[in-house]
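In line with agreed milestones, work has continued on tokenised descriptions of protein folds. One protein thus recorded appears below exactly as we store it:

>
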Amino acid sequence: MSTMNAYFGKIREVSRSIIIGMGLTWRYLVNPKEIVTVQYGSKKYGPQKNYLPPRHRGIHYLETEKCIQCEICAKACPVDCIEMEGTRDGDLEGGWQGDKVQISRFVIDLNKCIFCNLCCEPCPKSCIHMGQEFDLAAYTRSHGVKNLLTDKPWSQADAEAEAWRRDEMKRLAEEKKKKKAAEKAARDAAKKAAAEKKKPDGDDTKKS
């Protein structure tokens, strides 16, 4: 009797498992809005990112205007795939306006990135994020390097522009250095003039 009970018990268990699995299959079959697996590149169900969870770790994007170029994201990256350059020495032609900084370069090498989110978590301004985009397919590895300032793959034109801006930043730094030196010289001259003015002309009194 116990053998028969065990036999029919297993039948009930297997039947229940099949019913639950088929119920789930039929639910997704008749309700394509909940579909979670589609053929790559398929446009039948709209953008695939519509079916990704909110905290999906996809391709990065940057809120440039909030960035202070603290480089914490680059320092936190375990594979060193983030590079940035910028200046606080003046208005950089062709640069991107950050928070009190002109940014000339901000790239991430997605060929090396492990999508660990460690660049986003320590950001004091919460300006770098991992988005919903996930398609990294490209014809060349160079297209895997993303320019976060333009939100496009890094190109040869970007390289040429960055080289020019790098020279421009050096010029701005030199100008700022000269300006500070001139201001310091002016302050020193003013202090010297004030000291000379306060100094007595001389002791004209004679001892009797």
